[in-house]
Amino acid sequence: MSTATIQEYRDRLDPVNYLPNREDAVDAGVSPAAWRFARAVLDVIDAGQYRRAAIAASAVYVADVAATGEDRVSQTSLAELFGCSDNGVRRHMQLVAQTATSKLDVSGFDVDESVIRHVARTGRVTGLSL
Questions:
Q1: Rg for the chain, CA atoms, rounded
Q2: Which of 52, 79, 82, 129 shows the smallest number of beta carbons within 10 Å?
Q3: What pLDDT is attached to residue 25?
Q4: How far apart are CA 123 and CA 77, in angstroms?
Q5: How far apart are CA 36 and CA 40, in angstroms?
Q6: Averaged over 59-78, what is the pLDDT?
Q7: Helix, strand, or coil here: 49?
Q8: Which residue in 20, 113, 87, 99 sits closest to 60, CA to CA?
C-alpha cells in the first residue's frame, strides 16, 4: 500500500475533512462562530464507527443553534451539503454535544453553553427556549 493511499484512507476517517470550507458553510447559512466551534469539536471527537459526514453535519447544526440561538439552518439542507441523510444529522447530535462538553472549554467560543449541555443531555434541540 503506497503512502498516498494510506494518507487518503486516514483523511476519509477524519471527520474534520468532511467540513466544508468556511465560505461554503457561510454561503449555506451557517454562522462563522458556529463553523469555528464545529471545527474545534471535530478536531477532538472520537468518530469510532460513526458516519463521518453525518458527524460533521451534526457538529455544524448543533454549533449553529448554539451560536445563533435559533434553529435557522435546516437539518435537511445540511444533510444535502454534507452528503448524508437528515436522520444521520439527528442521530449524531448527542455525541457531538457530549464531546463538546467533555473535551472542550466551551466558554472559549461564542456559543450558548446551555444549548450544548441540553443537546448533550437530551440529543435534541426541542425544548429549548430559542
A1: 14
A2: 129
A3: 79
A4: 19
A5: 6
A6: 92
A7: coil
A8: 20
Instruction: Report the share of the chain in percent with pLDDT over 70.
Output: 88
Angle between helices 113-122 and 52-68 (to 10 degrees): 140
Please report which helix (H) or strand (E) contains residue 17, including its range.
none
Which of 67, 49, 63, 53 has its CA nearest to residue 16? 53
Q: pTM, whole model, 2 decimals?
A: 0.84
118 class by beta-carbon count within 10 Å (0-12 exposed, 13-18 middle, 19+ buried): buried
The mean predicted confidence, pLDDT, of the chain is 86
Domains annotated for the chain, with CATH where assigned, are 3-122 (1.10.472)
Residues in the chain: 130
Q: What is residue 14's predicted lDDT score, i.e. its pLDDT?
A: 66
What span, in angstroms and rounded, lies between the C-alpha atoms of 5 and 19?
21
C-alpha distances out from residue 78 to 72, 73, 89, 117, Å:
11, 7, 8, 22
